[in-house]
Amino acid sequence: MEYERNFVNAADYLRDLKYGGEVEFIYNGVHYSVTNPHEKLNVMIAHDYDSLIEYDTHIESLNYPVGNNKTLGDIFAEMKVTFRSL
């Protein structure tokens, strides 16, 4: 599968989310989703509501833990974006 929707860097990700975008991506074989319901930002492992963390701002979402002592903000070069909307 070709991942043509990958982010260039954190600024690229933050810009999309600032304007209501949503994202789905794969990192280390795990599918994640980032959504914008009700003026909050939800980040979670896809379909695993126990992993859900709700953030007040798109910048705070960079702190979401993705394993291996890394956060979402650390993995832009490694994530494979499967869905990206604005």
Q: Would you summarize the structure shown here?
A:
With 86 residues, this protein is mainly beta. The chain is built from 1 helix and 7 strands. The chain has one domain.
Low-confidence stretches: none
Distance between the termini: 22 Å
Tally of strands? 7
Strand order of the largest sheet: 4-3-2-1-7
User: What is the domain total for the residues?
Assistant: 1
Which structural class do the helices and strands define?
Answer: mainly beta
In percent, how much strand structure appears in the residues?
Answer: 35-45%
Number of contiguous helices: 1
SSE arrangement:
Blueprint: H1 10-18, E1 22-27, E2 30-35, E3 41-45, E4 53-55, E5 65-67, E6 70-71, E7 80-85
Antiparallel strand pairs: 1-2, 1-7, 2-3, 3-4, 5-6
Structure description:
With 86 residues, this protein is mostly beta strands. The chain has one domain. Helices cover 10% and strands 36% of the residues. It contains one helix and seven strands; from the N terminus they run H-E-E-E-E-E-E-E. The chain has one helix spanning 10-18; strands at residues 22-27, 30-35, 41-45, 53-55, 65-67, 70-71, 80-85. The strands form two sheets. The chain has a five-stranded antiparallel β-sheet with strand order 4-3-2-1-7, with no helix packed on it. Strand 5 and strand 6 form a beta hairpin. The longest helix is centred in the first third of the chain and has 9 residues, at 10-18. The chain is globular. The two termini are 22 Å apart. The mean pLDDT is 91.
